[in-house]
Amino acid sequence: MDSSKPLTDIHHTLLLCMYDHFVSCDSLTCLFPWCCPQLRLYLPTKATKEEAITHLKQWIASSFVEANPVPGISLQNFIKFDQHIEFDCAPREGQAWVSLCMMGKFSKARLVKPQSPFATESNQYWVLKRPLNDNMVAAWEVYLQLAQLKNLSSVTPLLWAARLTDSTRDFIVCSALEGVCLHEYLQCNEPLTSDFVVKIMMKLSVALGHLQTMNIVYLNWTTKNILVQKDLRGDLSVKLINFDASTIVGQVMDMSALPVHLLPPEVLCRKPVTLSSDLWGMGCVLYELTTLRPVWHEKRHLPIPELQDMMKTYHHPRPPDVHWSLRPLYTLCWEVDPSKRVDVVRFYILLSQY
Predict the structure, then answer these.
(1) Dihedral sign, CA of 175, 176, 177, 182?
(2) pLDDT tens digits, residue range 50-62?
(3) 239: number of CA atoms within 13 Å, CB side?
(4) Whole-Å CA distances, 259 to 91, 193, 217, 221, 232
(5) What is the pTM of this model?
(6) Can you give the residue ranges of the Protein kinase domain (predicted)?
(7) CB-based burial, 49-61: b 16+ in 10 Å, e otherwise
(8) Helices marked H in 161-216 — which ranges?
(9) Which residues on adjacent β-strands are paired with residue 236?
(10) 68-92 CB burial, b ≥16 within 10 A, e <16
(11) 8 Å CB contact between 273 and 219
């Protein structure tokens, strides 16, 4: 395609069809040769029709020039979280697993059935997810760090992760199918007591403590990103399940990875994240547990400057009267200055005193 010549309506239609396929494709090995990992580095997942046409036209005109690997990033291509795994590269569709369905209408996760010998009694189904946002370099580093955790009981049952090319911006993560998300659990159960809320928050504090030993900042603090499951004794376990927007301490966060109303003030100011950034998120989960709705959800369309002013002056929404005793915890988490927030150890101790 000659980029100097104007496009016809047929060209427009073709390029838009290619773009629509690109944003919805989650195949490890797509049948279309142009739907390649390098294109995912180049093409934004959210674009107007005009932007999509321009980007694809420029990409095709460049003759599929290979993207250079990102400097300073580990060249490890395959991560084993479960050391019982006997394979050392991403198992291929059709040979090792078959696709069953998407996990939800707006989900990028796919439920698949592993074939023998990849399937085990405890892992009869896999969930495959390909993260797609501008934070993928940091996200891959997060998964490398998670592989070093000695205690993975507080995170989703991860099995393996694999880069699809030499670029860390394009990879897939596999976990075992387990439990339900906390959001669904809340919809199907009676209103929570303050005692139950405290128990959940204590378990989340333990999970956060594990992440902080690896300098991981989770950031994805909503009940939809928390897994719950009852064990044989009836006790509820809690696990973090979505690390797509997570990063390492000291990084400047990509604000497109999360809804702005859930971001800590330092992220809105484009300052580096710290370990205390997740304590702001703990306050967000606490609010959602006590109200059954995300914090500041009705303010999510505000411009960022207005949202920042609201956080400084309004401080935080009022908790329901039935959970009024938890109000001091909100205050400790929702300090606009990160250095003034409570640390996770102190937060856990305060929870244990309720």
Answers:
(1) negative
(2) 887 787 777 666 5
(3) 23
(4) 33, 28, 16, 11, 36
(5) 0.71
(6) 95-354
(7) eeebbebbbebee
(8) 182-187, 194-212
(9) 230
(10) eeeeebeeebebbbbeebeeeebbe
(11) yes
